[in-house]
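Weekly modeling sync, notes
Attendees: S.R. (lead), two postdocs, one rotation student

Agenda item 3: backlog of single-chain predictions. S.R. asked that every request posted to the team notebook include the full sequence so nobody has to chase files. The rotation student volunteered to paste the first one in as an example of the format we agreed on. Action items at the bottom.

Example entry:
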Amino acid sequence: MSQMSLKLIVGLGNPDKHLLSTRHNVGFWLLDSLVEKLSKDFSYIKKFESDICEFEHDTHQIYLMKPLSYINNSGIPIKTYIKNKNIKPENILIVYDDLDLNVGQIRLKQGGASAGHNGLNSIIEQLGSKEFWRLRIGIGKPENKDNVVSYVLGKPSPEDKQSILECINLILDKINEFFNGDFSKLMNKLNGK
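Predicted structure, as returned to the notebook:
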């Protein structure tokens, strides 16, 4: 399915203040930048254990969500929220960091396995579906795979951060295409960048 009706964008991250600027939080970075671009604000909604922003694009409602349950439990608030709003997995876009992509690379696709990302494992398990869309932002990987946890929970170098921010700006430049569901065009434009 290349044309989709986007209803929910979820950015993955960890809520602790000392973790906000870490590589694992690029999903939060993108949503924070998007809300700023839209001149909107997030509201904390306790029932969903998330920061939520709702707005209308053309005639349809779009929801932005930052689960505050920690990445490894992201699926729990997402499941509660989509049940409440009657949103199907294929109308969801999850934005998250990816070790298997070079810093600042982007991949957009629907479905597939979690590739070991604990946040995705939680979402797949809770939703009982892999059919949601994924927007992966590359953070690179450490030379020693034993250092993965400290790497994703570490802050990127100034150069790497700049590359990630440029990639976020590129996505924001195309945000209306996301809202309009032009995902086949977006895959052609973004994948491999």
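Discussion: group reviewed the output briefly. The longest strand covers residues 50-57.
Action items: rotation student to repeat for the remaining queue; S.R. to check formatting next week.
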